[in-house]
Design goal:
This protein is of the alpha+beta class and 80 residues long. It contains three helices and four strands, in the order ααββββα.
């Protein structure tokens, strides 16, 4: 499955695929959301949980560049 095929699925189908085939690699908190970053096949997906209700509010596909920008402080790269 590629990102375009994933985009065409319903939210429920996307969630099922993320939980069955995705690997959570990072997380962050933004305002009242707990955001989990997953790698799924060859693309990245964020799942936004509303902390007050513990429900998924949105699912966002990210490009690798976006992941690097958003999570750069959490990614530890060795110094050369």
């Amino acid at each position: 499955m590629n990102a375009d095929q994933f985009r065409k699925l319903t939210s429920l189908q996307q969630v099922e695929i993320i939980f069955e085939n995705g690997q959570e690699i990072m997380s962050r908190v933004f305002v009242f959301y707990s955001i989990r970053l997953y790698v799924l096949y060859d693309f990245f997906v964020e799942v936004w949980y509303r902390q007050t209700s513990l429900k998924i509010d949105r699912i966002i596909l990210l490009r690798e560049e976006d992941v690097m920008d958003i999570y750069e402080k959490q990614i530890e790269l060795p110094e050369f």
